[in-house]
Amino acid sequence: MNHKILEQYSEHAGPDVIEHLKQLVEPLIGLKVVHVNSTKLGGGVAEILDKMVILMRELGIDTSWEVISGEAEFYTCTKNFHNAIQGNRVNVSDSQLEVYEKTNAETAERLRDKLQEADIVFIHDPQPAAMIKYIDSRKAKWIWRCHIDASKPFRPVWKHLKNIISYYDASVFSLASFAQRMPHPVYLIAPSIDPLHRKNMDLNQTDIDEVYSRFEIDPERPIMLQVSRYDRFKDPVGVILAYRLAKKMLPHIQLVLAGGGASDDPEGEIILNEVRMAAGDDPDIKVLLLPGDAHLTINALQRAADIVLQKSIREGFGLTVAEAMWKNKPVIGGDTGGIRIQVVNHHTGFLVNTPEGAALRIRYLLSNPDILNNIGKTAKEFVRENFLNTRHLREYFTLFYAVLHNNIERIELS
Ligand code: UDP
């Protein structure tokens, strides 16, 4: 079998990891897997799935990727589900629920043959979740993959969703703290980054020099960076406060805030204005508004930085943390969500709760360049071990074994 794409990961994940994947997939070759989500473009779920599907196919799993789509009211309903799972008190009307069920029933009908022939149906997030109700005499194992934080859902809406999810054979959450109790086995699988993506691939020094000159950043002076949407939960103003406090002792430091998507998000625009106000006329703060596909620019900025901050006060997984760590950067991150499983205090970065805490860690790292470099190196190895998409693939294969064997505790592979 040709493993051309998988082999490209050998350099990053290690040849033993690639070998292990080939062995692990052996008994799964020929398995029919259908993924269903709501989009093939945009957002982390589609980005991760895109490469997963390519790799699974190359490894001999008969994988297809289908999408559910509907009219405006369907998306209003699923957006409400999304917000309710994340804890917002939202009302989902009966007419929205009707459209949701109708869209799921129609999509199940359209995909009926495929879903009935499959061995595993992998449903991502709430949008296509109800399809399961419309496929009877199911041969496949159905897995519900929740990509969002379900730790404190809005109960009335969650109750409705949980009834649907109860039909499934297993659920998967990203972190223990995001999970909910279910009447079936629950698995934890963290997200991952793709080392071959334009956002993470190796760059030449000229690509990095290009961002210094494009954004008038001085390569001779330390650079602090935060890459995030302009969102209150990412606390960009707190980052500016931390920078200001650190700058009192280290006047030469610079700060870059890079984000995007503010123009079509009214809240984003408000936050961006607050950030610009907080930055004032300080020429050492660059507030950048980048287009959604500025992957190479983000990659280069992450490589140009000395320290990366992700001072979120609430966070999902926080892919930007793994991205920065992969580039040998120590991360000063908010003590929340997935940042907690990526930033190991004093080893791969520092967890902080306040601008003062972040400023203290900036000063500490910049005054101890050897420690800064060592933490950066450890951070990269930590990502190599835990947060590359090859680990993600391995865990999906292990999950397939588990559900195909009815989630028994011990599976003999001969
Ligand atoms: N990102 C981007 N452009 C931006 C800001 C962020 O491409 O202006 C990317 C970032 O590199 C990361 C993803 O979007 O890959 C954000 O994921 P994360 O989990 O950090 O935060 P989310 O936005 O999902 O809350």
Question: What is this entry, summarized?
Answer:
The protein has 414 residues and is an alpha/beta fold. The chain has helices at 4-7, 10-13, 15-25, 44-58, 72-85, 94-110, 112-117, 155-165, 205-214, 236-249, 266-279, 295-304, 319-326, 339-342, 355-367, 369-386, 389-404, and strands at 32-37, 62-67, 120-124, 141-145, 170-173, 186-188, 223-227, 254-260, 285-290, 307-310, 331-334, 349-352.
3D architecture notes:
The model has no long low-confidence stretch (mean pLDDT 95). Strand 1 (32-37), helix 4 (44-58) and strand 2 (62-67) form a beta-alpha-beta unit. By secondary structure, the protein is an alpha/beta fold. The longest helix is centred in the last third of the chain and has 18 residues, at 369-386. Helix 5 packs across helix 6. The chain has helices at residues 4-7, 10-13, 15-25, 44-58, 72-85, 94-110, 112-117, 155-165, 205-214, 236-249, 266-279, 295-304, 319-326, 339-342, 355-367, 369-386, 389-404; strands at 32-37, 62-67, 120-124, 141-145, 170-173, 186-188, 223-227, 254-260, 285-290, 307-310, 331-334, 349-352. It starts with a helix and ends in a 10-residue tail after the last helix. 46% of the residues lie in helices and 14% in strands. The structure holds uridine-5'-diphosphate. Uridine-5'-diphosphate (UDP) is lined by residues 44, 199, 227-229, 258-260, 290, 298, 316-320, 323.
